[in-house]
Amino acid sequence: MLKRELRKKYKNLRAAITSAKASDLSLVLANNILQIPIWDFFYYHIFLSIEEKSEVDTLPLITLLQGKDKNVVVPKVVSSNSMENYLLTDNTAFKKSAWGVPEPMDGIEVPENKIDVVFVPLLAFDALGNRVGYGKGFYDTFLNKCRKETIKIGLSFFEAESEQITDVHENDVKLDYCVTPKKVYTF
Q: Residues comprising the binding site?
């Protein structure tokens, strides 16, 4: 199946989820992450949700990470396809971007080579670990700058797409795991 078809399908499916249901599913999803052996690392990069697009709410996961004394890193878009990463602290101030993404205004920058685990936003994924995002390439560019051993974990309200994504590009970075409310996929 083509990415553009999956984008349309999953944007519509997510739009049908109420905010209360999204909140409940996000909490289940955060608890499912406890099954993955990632708790011996130091730097965890996590996206901040776009509420208007019914994305997985990452606040329960951030709370979980902070409760385990992990360093939480959040992104800020700085150019047409590039992000910087900042340590989340009690003093971090946020501003919504043009896309509605809460971004840190400034702070302690964390280089890509320090990041151990990345929680990746997505619209859809297949059984091989290929993901479909919004199509801007921010995360593929970012993930290609990370170390090869950095663990990549997708977060989705929906299960793996039954058909393989057919228009995967050479710069697309596969997931190591994808967590849904029902299952943890390992690739």
A: 3-7, 50, 55, 131-139
Distance CA 95, CA 137 (A): 22
Q: Binding site for substrate: which residues? A: 50, 55
Spatial distance between the Cα atoms of 152 and 116, rounded to a whole number of angstroms: 9
Buried b (16+ CB within 10 A) or exposed e, 139-172: bbbbbeebeeebbbbbbbbbebbeeebeeeeeeb
Beta strands in the chain (DSSP E): 43-46, 71-79, 82-87, 94-96, 102-104, 117-120, 124-125, 131-132, 151-155, 177-179, 184-186
Domains of the chain: 3-186 (3.40.50.10420)
Print pLDDT tens along the chain (187 aa): 899 999 999 999 999 999 999 999 999 999 999 999 999 999 999 999 887 788 899 999 999 999 999 999 999 998 777 899 999 999 999 999 887 889 999 999 999 999 999 999 999 999 999 999 887 788 999 999 999 999 999 999 999 999 999 999 888 999 999 999 999 999 9
The annotation places the binding site for ATP at 3-7, 131-139
Q: Collect all residues with Cβ–Cβ distance below 8 Å to 20 and sequence separation of at least 6.
A: none
